[in-house]
Amino acid sequence: MSKFITFEGVDGAGKSTHLAWFADTLRQRGLEVLVTREPGGTPLGERLREILLNQPMHAETEALLMFAARLEHIEHVIRPALQRGTWVVSDRFSDASFAYQGGGRGVPWAKLEQLERWVHEGLQPDLTLLFDIPVEIARQRLANNLTLDRFEQEQADFFERVRAAYHRRVQQNPQRYAVIDAAQSLEKVKQQLEEIVSAI
Ligand code: TMP
After folding, report:
1. Helices 59-73 and 43-54 sit at what angle, rounded to 10 degrees?
2. What is the model's pTM?
3. Ligand 1 pocket check: which of 7, 10, 16, 38 to mutate, most ligand atoms within 8 Å of Cβ?
4. Which among 7, 151, 152, 154 is the best mutation to test ligand 1's pocket, defined by most ligand atoms within 8 Å of the CB?
5. 14: CA distance to ligand 1 center in Å?
6. What is the pLDDT of residue 134?
7. What separation in Å is there between the alpha carbon of 166 and the centre of ligand 1?
8. pLDDT range class, residue 17, cuts 50, 70, 90
9. Is the pLDDT of residue 61 over 90?
10. Dist. CA 181–CA 92, nearest whole Å
11. Atom of ligand 1 at shortest distance to CA of 152?
């Protein structure tokens, strides 16, 4: 049976670096794997991403647009892939809305839960890898980037709230998550991922 796996973490946690390797490792084991991302993953979703990453807006507009892009993604990409037996690995999903719009921007948790029920219609990732890292270290890594989007430009306290909200999600549903210590060396993180691949 195909699985839906998501990667999460604060900006600068290094999740995207590991995602390509993770997907290749699954492919080497003979699995059909689709790599996708949020916001994005569909033509409309990518246009919404462009707006979301650059255009200032009300926090709840931001939450609604994230979930609008997600509905397109689920209906046109994720569900069809899972139904034909393809594994789906997504760089971010709804946990990011709880973390960034909920924790970071203060959108009420209950409103996000409402959107989640509406848009997901029962779909949840089989596994979420949370790349957890002290905000200080994540920010040092981001400092090497030449351009920063609207989220990456936020201050440390914003990312502390994002990180805390991710942990709140883990506490609410611990069996869905593998929390990775992303402050470790690339090699050590890879080892943790290898163990996860073997387990699934
Ligand atoms: P990325 O840099 O990992 O591609 O993600 C783009 C940004 O979008 C990242 O800073 C987190 C943010 N984001 C949200 O705020 N809410 C969401 O629901 C998603 C999927 C991403």
Report:
1. 160
2. 0.97
3. 38
4. 151
5. 13
6. 97
7. 13
8. confident
9. yes
10. 17
11. 10
- 100 C-beta closer than 6 A to ligand 1: yes
Provide the token pair at 60. Answer: 């709840």
Q: 90 and 34 in contact (C-beta within 8 Å)?
A: no
Instruction: Indicate if the pLDDT at residue 129 is higher than 90.
Output: yes
Output the CA 135–ligand 1 centroid distance in Å: 16
153: tokens are 């430009």
Phi-psi region of 135 (alpha: psi -120 to 50; beta: other; left: phi over 0): alpha
DSSP symbol at 91: E
DSSP 114: H
Helix, strand, or coil (residue 56): coil
